[in-house]
Fold each of these.
Amino acid sequence: LQSWAHWPVKFRVLAAVTARQHLAVVPGGRCTVLVTVCTPTNTVFDPPNIASTVAKACLDGVVDAGILPDDDSRHVTRTSYDRGPKTNVRGIYRLTITLEEVSDGR
C-alpha cells in the first residue's frame, strides 16, 4: 500500500482484499462478529481496546468487499472480542474476524 495512506485506510484495504479471498457473502446479511486478537507475548491486555481502531477499519473492509451490506446494528447483531494464541514473533500481532450468520429466527 502507498506510504501516504493513513493506517486505518491500510487496514481497511487489506481486510477487503483478504475478505474477498477467504469469505463468502453472508446470506441474509446478518451476523455476529468475533474478533480474536493474538499478541506476540502473554502479557495482559484488553482485547476490546482494539475495537475503535484496527477492528473497525477491518470490519469496514469486510463491508467494502461486499461480504456484508453494512456493519450497522441491523446487520451485525453482536460483536465479541477474545484473546487468541500468542504469535511468538516480536512486534507481530494477528487479528482474526469471524462472521457467524444469524438466522431470521434469531
Amino acid sequence: PTRRSSDLSVVLLAVAEIIRVYSEGPRVYAQTPAGAFALKARLYEMERRLEGRDFVRISASELVNARMIEGMDFSLTGTIRLSLRGGIQTYVSRRRVAEIKKLFDVR
C-alpha cells in the first residue's frame, strides 16, 4: 500500500486502485477512483516502488497503471492520447511513444 499525508491524516491506498501517479509542480499525487491523494514520495521513488506492478512511465511527470487504460488514440501526430478509467485523458510524451507502442504490440 501507498500512504498519503494530508494534515494529520494518513490514507492507505491499494496499488490495484491507483489509476496514475503524476507530479504537478513540486507535489506528487496518486489518482484513484476516490480522488487524487498527495504523496510524500518523489515520482522516481514511486516508479521504483511500483516496478513490476503494471505501471508504465508515459512522460517525465506521469506513470499510469496499464490495467486502467481503456483506450488509445493514435490520430494525433507524434503522441498518443490515453483514456483511463474514470474518464481521465492523458498524453504519452513523444519520447515514450515507441516504447508504449512496443509494450502494447501496436504498429
